[in-house]
Amino acid sequence: MAIGFGVQCPKPETRKRIKRRKRRAEDKQKRIVRAQCVKRDGFCRLTGCGPCSGVSEWCHMGDKKRARTRGMAPEERHTTAGSFMGCTGHHRAYDAGEIDMDPITTDGADGPLFVRCGDKLALAC
Predict the structure, then answer these.
(1) CA 43, 49, 55, 57 torsion-angle sign
(2) Does the residue 87 lie in any domain?
(3) Which tens digits make up the pLDDT trace of 36-66?
(4) Which of 24, 26, 83, 97 is the most buried (most CB within 10 A)?
């Protein structure tokens, strides 16, 4: 005699499959946004802050930094308004707080940026 009255419940999706599905969705969004940033910015957007060094990297701005956006939907986490392209040297300097960037308009990084590099002021278009 079967217990449960013959009703079968499907097994829940494994944690490994859930993470893989989420990673695929996020990877797709990251590829799209990075390609748009490369097209918009080129190699490094912060060329007014001194010579560039290293390879071109995709950088997240301000409240869109990856440590602050965990758990958000990929479309909200990775946007062109919240990211820019920078060389390795400028990316490290930005993350260390040596370079400060503020958007001039409500478009975020999609519009012009006001950049402070130590005592130098620049406008990154």
Answers:
(1) negative
(2) yes
(3) 999 998 898 888 778 888 899 999 888 777 7
(4) 83
Q: What is the pLDDT of residues 71-102, one digit of tens each?
A: 888 888 888 998 999 999 999 998 888 888 88
| CB count in 10 Å sphere of residue 13 | 9
Q: Half-sphere exposure of residue 8, counting CA atoms within 13 Å on the CB side? A: 2
C-alpha–C-alpha distance, residues 44 and 109, integer Å: 13
Domain around 87: 43-124
Query: Considering its fold, how many domains does the chain have in total?
Result: 1
Side-chain half-sphere CA neighbours of 35 within 13 A: 6
Rounded Cα distance, 32 and 113, in Å: 22
State CA 100 to chain mean position distance.
Answer: 17
Q: Are 113 and 123 in contact (CB under 8 A)?
A: yes
85 found inside a domain? yes
